[in-house]
């Protein structure tokens, strides 16, 4: 595969470009990395045939399959467009896992076999929109593998997967690479590049800066710069403080909690209490109910009123509004990013965090604008303030949504795989901000992740949900 002089314009509002001169990809699988604004995501879109190009691309062996956040977004948008909830007078959870796999191949045995290996067997007849974040990633991966590609384009394929699924997928990808399937593996964080990939390409500000064998790349100054992150200035001062709770009031408590969909029991007999001053981490395999639990906490799940829940001094179901709950919560998760579809600029997306809305539908004070700009500046992206939110890369969007959660200094900061899509330097900046906020007792942390982050210093108690 040979790539030369490529220029792409994927967004008509913002001029993006990626330039590659004389890169011979043939014969090897490649890891591709770089900062969030480097253009590496555009490379996948280009190779997948989703973007126009100038120049030449030769030797691309089809079929080509894609596992990326952009591919996931396309599937989500298609399912939302075809939502028939209003027509059938019930919630339409979209096409089933099996139906979406059979779009690729009608060989049901292959679909069911791969579903079993990925831990999707119990969900084979569930609708797409009922899946958790990790389960959705598994489905995207399954669809790509069922195509039996000669070239497999990947963007952090392990993100959102539990340990067992990660180990299986890593072994499978290594086997595919050795058997002659070419992998183009884009990784936001250099430390996540699989050890068995021997060639690395580094992109910088829209250009291929280096492409060589692993040993040469690891010895380069460019490689060292990818992990550089430092922020010595204090975080912006909170704009407002929430009223304190009575001494014995929990931040959140659920008693004998249970959630089920028909015969599918997500969890049952859950007794859990977050005391004031406590930080928690929630762990468990894909499908164990982590996403469902967070929806109960945020008031976004229809079964939250059929459970005994006390939160922020209020008994759920006794006249409180969902906004009484949300105003004390800052949330970041993949679902928010997928559903943040309004056309706004970056600073408006950040300011929407003060009002717990998607977009802003009220007058914005200068105080809010200044405070939002201070946070953007702290993260080093103040120059993006007036850029369209959807013109950003996936990682830059995630960073903006993290800032959106931080601006109101929430009583409870809920972060569900928050570093997904972030490069190493931005990930370290986010961890620094979290550490300082927790140390200052501005917010309490509820953290959901399949991976350990040594840079997260907050002491967290652990809630482990069973499969």
UniProtKB/TrEMBL annotation:
Transmembrane segments: none annotated. Signal peptide: none annotated. Residues 1-230, 252-466 form the ABC transporter domain. Coiled coil: none annotated. PROSITE patterns: ABC_TRANSPORTER_1, ABC_TRANSPORTER_2. Gene3D superfamilies: P-loop containing nucleotide triphosphate hydrolases. SUPFAM superfamilies: P-loop containing nucleoside triphosphate hydrolases. It holds the Pfam family ABC_tran. The keyword Nucleus does not apply. It comes from the Bacteria. This is ATP-binding cassette domain-containing protein.
């Amino acid at each position: 595969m040979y790539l030369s002089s490529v220029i792409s314009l994927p967004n008509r509002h913002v001029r993006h470009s990626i330039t590659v001169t004389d890169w011979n990809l043939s014969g090897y699988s490649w890891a591709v990395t770089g900062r969030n604004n480097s253009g590496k995501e555009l490379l996948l879109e280009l190779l997948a045939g989703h973007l126009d190009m100038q120049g030449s691309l030769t030797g691309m062996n089809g079929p080509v399959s894609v596992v990326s956040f952009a591919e996931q977004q396309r599937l989500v948008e298609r399912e939302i467009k075809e939502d028939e909830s209003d027509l059938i007078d019930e919630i339409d959870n979209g096409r089933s896992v099996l139906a979406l796999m059979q779009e690729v191949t009608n060989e049901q045995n292959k679909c069911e076999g791969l579903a079993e290996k990925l831990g999707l067997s119990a969900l084979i007849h569930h609708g797409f929109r009922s899946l958790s974040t990790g389960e959705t990633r598994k489905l995207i991966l399954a669809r790509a593998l069922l195509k039996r590609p000669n070239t497999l384009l990947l963007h952090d394929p392990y993100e959102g997967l539990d340990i067992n699924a990660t180990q299986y997928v890593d072994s499978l990808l290594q086997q595919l690479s050795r058997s002659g399937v070419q992998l183009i593996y884009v990784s936001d964080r250099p430390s996540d590049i699989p050890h068995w990939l021997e060639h690395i390409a580094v992109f910088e500000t829209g250009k291929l800066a280096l492409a060589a064998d692993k040993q040469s790349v690891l010895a380069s100054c460019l490689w060292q710069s990818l992990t550089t992150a430092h922020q010595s200035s204090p975080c912006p001062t909170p704009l407002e403080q929430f009223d304190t709770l009575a001494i014995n009031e929990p931040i959140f408590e659920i008693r004998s909690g249970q959630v089920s969909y028909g015969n599918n029991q997500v969890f049952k007999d859950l007794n859990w209490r977050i005391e004031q001053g406590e930080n928690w981490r929630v762990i468990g395999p894909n499908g164990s109910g982590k996403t469902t639990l967070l929806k109960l906490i945020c008031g976004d799940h229809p079964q939250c009123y059929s459970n005994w829940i006390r939160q922020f001094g209020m008994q759920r179901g006794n006249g409180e509004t969902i906004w009484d709950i949300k105003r004390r919560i800052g949330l970041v998760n993949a679902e928010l990013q997928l559903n943040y579809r309004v056309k706004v600029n970056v600073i408006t997306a950040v300011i929407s965090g003060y009002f717990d809305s998607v977009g802003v539908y009220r007058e914005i004070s200068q105080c809010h604008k200044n405070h939002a700009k201070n946070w953007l500046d702290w993260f080093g992206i103040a120059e993006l303030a007036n850029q369209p939110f959807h013109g950003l890369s996936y990682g830059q969007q995630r960073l903006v949504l993290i800032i959106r959660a931080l601006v109101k200094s929430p009583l409870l900061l809920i972060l569900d795989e928050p570093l997904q899509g972030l490069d190493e330097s931005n990930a370290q900046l986010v961890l620094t901000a979290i550490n300082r906020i927790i140390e200052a007792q501005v917010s309490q942390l509820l953290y959901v992740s399949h991976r350990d982050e040594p840079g997260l210093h907050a002491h967290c108690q652990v809630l482990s949900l069973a499969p």
